[in-house]
Automatic annotation (TrEMBL):
One of its GO terms (cellular component) is plasma membrane. Gene3D superfamilies: P-loop containing nucleotide triphosphate hydrolases, Signal recognition particle SRP54, nucleotide-binding domain. The lineage of its organism: Bacteria, Bacillati, Bacillota, Clostridia, Lachnospirales. It comes from Parablautia muri. This is Signal recognition particle receptor FtsY. It is an enzyme of class 3 (hydrolase). Part of the signal recognition particle protein translocation system, which is composed of SRP and FtsY. HAMAP family: FtsY (MF_00920).
């Protein structure tokens, strides 16, 4: 955990330089809390990719606190700003219910965002919690995808169901669901293609896989996690919106948070889409994925020593 936190902190260095440096300038540069002060803060949060809506909510909460606590000095309200950002990012406890139930997790997103890698890491994470995990290689389109996923399954120490290259992804899902039922698997995680001949095919394929799961295992807890690359900033929002038209998204896996200057996107995504960021990835190794923890994230972002 400590290792993860330091990687997260390290990963957020560029974001920190971007946002926190600006925020500090505002806190130090203003002698009173006035409209101009809030405007400057607003500009910095928006520039840091926190998003217009989230920034509005964060500052509204801050203004309320400033009034209630009769604050006069900008420096006095920094901790309230940090608290307000944490508040903005809280994830409901129930968001992780699927980890403890018999569930089927579809992992979706455009190619290259880190889907396959995240499927492997998530399998490892759940296995470590004592869950019986099965992986389905439903990306039959990309030649190396299955091989890559098999390596991840080995690393995580879980079973994998795969089809031949070019096989119907839905048939792989069908086989995997049958296997999950027969083997009393706790969590079935399905990797899906990020690219097909065209976008319409991709979305149709997703719908078909979902129909099969609905039909074959109606009692399973369903989870549709979209993987978004944290370095792509606002583009990630558009991807989530597009996939959201086809599948009911229940959570986000935000990858590549090591080395992005746009870490603020985590705040924006959650607020703009109203979908919780459930996991974040900070590297390419098995243990480089963890449950999203708003407290930890904001501490890392502001270099607050919440943890060693
Ligand atoms: N630095 C870093 N790299 C990551 C992270 N997650 C994934 N990657 C890398 O991103 C690249 C793409 O990852 P994949 O898992 O193959 O992406 P994908 O979405 O499955 O791609 P397709 O199979 O082409 O659809 C790989 O080189 C991964 O090692 C992360 O959290 N941090």
């Amino acid at each position: 955990m400590a290792g993860f936190f330091s990687r997260l902190k390290e990963g957020l260095t560029k974001t920190r330089d971007n946002i926190v440096h600006g925020i500090d300038c505002v806190f130090n540069g203003f002698s009173s809390i006035d409209d101009e002060f809030y405007e400057e803060l607003e500009e910095i949060l928006i520039m840091g990719d926190i998003g217009v809506n989230a920034t509005g909510d964060i500052l509204e909460r801050l203004q309320k606190q400033v009034k209630e606590n009769h604050l006069k000095e900008p420096s006095e309200c920094k901790s309230f700003l940090i608290e307000s950002i944490k508040e903005q990012m809280k994830v409901e406890e129930t968001a992780y219910d699927f980890e403890h139930e018999q569930s089927i997790v579809m992992v979706i997103g455009v190619n290259g965002v880190g889907k396959t890698t995240s499927v492997g890491k998530l399998a490892g994470l759940l296995k470590a919690q004592g869950r019986k995990v099965l992986i389905a290689a439903a990306d039959t389109y990309r030649a190396a995808a299955c091989e890559q996923l098999t390596e991840w399954a080995n690393r995580a120490g879980v079973d994998i169901i795969a089809g031949a290259q070019g096989a119907d992804p839905s048939s792989v899902v069908f086989d995997a669901v049958s296997a999950a039922k027969a083997r009393h698997t706790d969590v079935l995680i399905c990797d899906t293609a990020g690219r097909l001949h065209n976008k319409r095919n991709l979305m149709e394929e997703l719908k078909k896989m979902n129909r099969i799961i609905d039909r074959e295992f109606p009692d399973a807890h369903r989870e549709n996690l979209i993987v978004l690359d944290g370095t792509t900033g606002q583009n990630a929002l558009n991807q989530a919106r597009e996939f959201g038209e086809t599948a009911k998204l229940t959570g986000i896996i935000l990858t590549k948070m090591d080395g992005t200057s746009k870490g603020g996107i985590a705040v924006a995504i959650q607020s703009e889409l109203n979908i919780p960021v459930k996991y974040i990835g900070v590297g390419e190794k098995l243990d480089d994925l963890q449950k999203f923890d708003s407290e930890q994230f904001v501490n890392a972002l502001f270099d607050v020593d919440g943890q060693a």
